């Protein structure tokens, strides 16, 4: 929604409440109307869908205390008559030129104007300062940001790597070097705005500024356009960048390369390049924050008797001691064998032990297990047996 919508639409009437209605009354009215007109309750009814959108738009403003105050202030000011079509400024009985609210917003009703959704503070900072967004010149436009995605191997993401990144995106025109003018010529200062990028016009007692239509707010005019970029200062081309991915970069992380995006128009600053990182999973190692994770199967005998376990790390294998009587699921920690942090610290390798129970055993093994079971003290099950007797 735009600031023009705030002036033209009575959101209180849309929800059927008074201007002094408290917040809970507004919320209650919205819920009732939204429930009645919800598309799920009115399938195939476009009018109900339009009503639902209108109720939601009204509540988005009136349900927010800050937006509601701005909305009330704006409608109060514009409702006083100072900005109505054909209003006469004070001290001018004959009246000034007719004023159209669409002139004020410059077609912002679609939501794309300079004041769209910016609130009353943005609107009046422009009206009373005499310039766009505080009175400064618009100047050359900044280039747009560019996004791309890169897939890294697990080990490269953990250790860090520098990779060439090939992009096909707008870049600075090599013919005019970004100023948009034909070689041998230069852009000249706009004679209409004198290089300011904005023009000011008086409307009664008020002064309004808007981007200069002669130079489109750039402040300069190109008489002979560059034949390569047609005056924009940028062309689509293939370029290769060497991008350094720091050690420990994580899956889903976004890396910003300042000034590597699209070039600005007519010498304006370039946008940024954002690289989204996707990390391919490793077949053995996992990762949790700065710690690497690993699950290692061990036999029942190794868990009971204990053993020395060789496990892989990023820097080669290490030996971990499995103490006798280790239960399944126990985690062993190899300190300093994880991911390097930016502050110089290093995470750990967390090894989870998984006791594997064989599906079948030989007769000799079964006899040994039966002997073992006969010699195992029942103390470990006394607590469980007590609960069985109590609840069984």
From TrEMBL:
Which PANTHER family does the UniProt record give? CHAPERONE PROTEIN DNAJ 1, DNAJ HOMOLOG 1, MITOCHONDRIAL-RELATED
Q: Which gene encodes it?
A: dnaJ
- Please give the NCBIfam families that the UniProt record associates with this protein: PRK10767.1
**UniProt name for this protein:** Chaperone protein DnaJ
Cofactor binding, per record: Binds 2 Zn(2+) ions per monomer.
Source species? Micromonospora craterilacus
The segments labelled Disordered in the record are 82-102
Annotated residues for binding of Zn(2+) 1: 173, 176, 226, 229
The protein's matches in Pfam families, at most eight in alphabetical order, are given as: DnaJ, DnaJ_C, DnaJ_CXXCXGXG
Which SMART domains does the entry mention?
Answer: DnaJ
Gene3D superfamilies membership: DnaJ domain, Heat shock protein DnaJ, cysteine-rich domain, Urease metallochaperone UreE, N-terminal domain
For domains, the record's comment is:
The J domain is necessary and sufficient to stimulate DnaK ATPase activity. Zinc center 1 plays an important role in the autonomous, DnaK-independent chaperone activity of DnaJ. Zinc center 2 is essential for interaction with DnaK and for DnaJ activity.
Q: In terms of domain of life, where is this protein from?
A: Bacteria
Q: Where are the zinc fingers (CR-type)?
A: 160-238
Oligomeric and partner information: Homodimer.
InterPro entries, alphabetized: DnaJ (IPR012724), DnaJ_C (IPR002939), DnaJ_domain (IPR001623), HSP40/DnaJ_pept-bd (IPR008971), HSP_DnaJ_Cys-rich_dom (IPR001305), HSP_DnaJ_Cys-rich_dom_sf (IPR036410), J_dom_sf (IPR036869)
> What family classification does the UniProt entry report for this protein?
Belongs to the DnaJ family.
């Amino acid at each position: 929604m735009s600031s023009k919508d705030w002036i033209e639409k009575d959101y209180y009437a849309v929800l059927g409440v008074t201007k002094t209605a408290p917040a809970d009354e507004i919320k209650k009215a919205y819920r009732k109307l939204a429930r009645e007109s919800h598309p799920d309750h009115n399938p195939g009814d476009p009018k109900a869908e339009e009503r639902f959108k209108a109720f939601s738009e009204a509540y988005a403003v009136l349900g927010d205390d800050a937006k509601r105050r701005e909305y009330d202030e704006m409608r109060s000011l514009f409702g006083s008559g100072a900005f109505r079509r054909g209003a006469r400024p004070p001290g001018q009985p004959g009246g000034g030129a007719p004023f159209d609210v669409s002139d004020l917003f410059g077609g912002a009703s679609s939501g794309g104007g300079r004041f769209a959704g910016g609130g009353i503070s943005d609107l009046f900072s422009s009206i009373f300062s005499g310039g766009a967004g505080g009175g400064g010149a618009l100047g050359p436009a900044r280039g747009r940001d560019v996004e791309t995605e890169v897939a890294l191997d697990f080990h490269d993401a953990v250790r860090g790597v520098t990779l060439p990144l090939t992009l096909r995106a707008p870049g600075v025109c090599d013919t005019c070097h970004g100023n948009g003018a034909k070689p041998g010529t230069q852009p000249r200062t706009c004679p209409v705005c004198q290089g300011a990028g904005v023009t000011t016009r008086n409307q009664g007692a008020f002064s309004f500024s808007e981007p200069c239509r002669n130079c489109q707010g750039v402040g300069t005019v190109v008489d002979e356009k560059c034949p390569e970029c047609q005056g924009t200062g940028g062309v689509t081309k293939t370029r290769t960048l060497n991008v350094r991915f720091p050690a420990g970069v994580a899956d889903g992380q976004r890396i910003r390369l300042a000034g590597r995006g699209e070039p600005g128009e007519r010498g304006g600053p370039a946008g940024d390049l954002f690289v989204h990182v996707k990390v391919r999973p490793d077949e053995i190692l996992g990762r949790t924050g700065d710690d690497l994770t690993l699950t290692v199967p061990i036999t029942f005998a190794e868990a009971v008797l204990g053993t020395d376990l060789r496990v892989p790390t990023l820097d080669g294998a290490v030996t971990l001691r499995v103490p006798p009587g280790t239960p399944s699921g126990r985690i062993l920690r190899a300190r300093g064998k994880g991911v390097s942090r930016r502050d110089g610290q290093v995470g750990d390798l967390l090894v989870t032990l998984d006791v594997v129970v064989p599906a079948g055993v030989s007769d000799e093994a079964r006899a040994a297990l039966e002997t073992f079971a006969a010699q195992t003290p029942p103390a470990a099950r006394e607590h469980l047996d007590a609960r069985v007797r109590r609840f069984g």
